[in-house]
Amino acid sequence: MIDKKYAPIILRVGISLVFLWFGSQQLLHASDWTTYLPGWVNSLPLQPTTFVLANGIFEIIFGLMLILGLFTRFTAALLAIHMLGIVSSIGYNDVAIRDFGLFMACVAIFFYGPDEWCLKK
Known about the structure:
0% strand; 5 helices; 121 residues; mainly alpha
């Protein structure tokens, strides 16, 4: 029989790995990611690649915090807000639907809070 107690850690680790992958790809290939930026980024006083690098650093830091279970609710809330910003900026398409699913997973982690495998409960 499958035990429900593993569901929170599977969700938390799975979502963390998504953020870690996207964050690392943004750091490794920042110029490739500038095409995904919304138009308002061009009005900022920094280069689009710098924005992508900052976003990659954010996703890696908070992806690591989530996978370790540090400040789980706070981290999940920040990542959910981050995903909501992405969803709202790209409009209605297949990518937005996928990102909405990631947003909802972060919301679920936020509501559940720290599980028994989190470093900080």
